[in-house]
Structure formats: C-alpha cells, structure tokens
C-alpha cells in the first residue's frame, strides 16, 4: 500500500504561481512513477504531469508545458508540482497519484493509488 497526501492548494490570481506537494508513505519501493491529475467542475479528471520515480524523467500534458514543473525528492518521498503563469482554466481539484505497474503512466487506470485532492482556484 502507498499513501499519498497533497498540500499547497489555494486561491491565486491569474498569472500567479503556486506549488503543490505530495507526500508519499508506505511501500514506496514498489512505485514506478507518480503523477498529478486535475478535475475541474463538470469535467473528467485529466492528466497533468508525471515523473518516473527512479530516474526522475518528466512528462507533461501539452496545455501545461512550459508553465508547470514536476519534481521529486527521492530522499523525502515527495513529489511537487510548481505551477506558474496560472490561468483561470487551471482551476480544479488537483490529485497526486502513484503507479506500481507502468513507468510512463498517464491514464487514470494505470495508477493504483490516489491522494484526496487539493483545490486550486485561479481568479481575480
């Protein structure tokens, strides 16, 4: 079992920045990759960014490339999502997820464990 706890959400103005953090615990040795997803009101949950746990290789959804950066602290078992140049359309509940089966996972079904989510609201 892997437990995930997100933190760092909040209200930010358009053009601002916010940093989300995900603390992982439990069977970390079994994790292949971790990712961030988001779900806006009335929409399906969508992939945002992922990172391979061992090698730290990152990959992103096109709409956040150049604005969001995913990183991991291997020693602290945390994965962060640094978000910059935020837009109102980035408003969503953001979820941290972990997969123990797929290295380049980006689909919901490829992830085994999920955090509870943290709200990000981009508004003036």
Tally of DSSP β-strands? 11
**Percentage of residues assigned to helices:** under 10%
Query: What ranges have pLDDT less than 50 throughout 5 or more consecutive residues?
Result: none
Output the structural class.
mainly beta
Instruction: Tell me the span between the first and last alpha carbons.
Output: 40 Å
Give the rounded overall mean pLDDT. Answer: 95
What does the main sheet amount to?
A: 7 strands, mixed
Short description:
Helices cover 0% and strands 50% of the residues.
Explain what the structure shows:
The chain is mostly beta strands and 124 residues long. The protein is built from no helices and eleven strands. Strands 2, 4, 5, 6, 9, 10 and 11 form a seven-stranded mixed β-sheet that branches. Strands 1-3-8-7 form a four-stranded antiparallel β-sheet, with no helix packed on it. The protein is globular. It starts with a strand and ends with a strand.
Task: Set out the fold topology.
Layout: E1 2-7, E2 10-12, E3 18-26, E4 33-39, E5 46-52, E6 58-60, E7 68-73, E8 78-83, E9 92-99, E10 113-114, E11 118-122
Parallel strand pairs: 2-11
Antiparallel strand pairs: 1-3, 3-8, 4-5, 4-9, 5-6, 7-8, 9-10, 9-11
What key phrases describe this protein's structure?
124 residues, 4-stranded antiparallel β-sheet
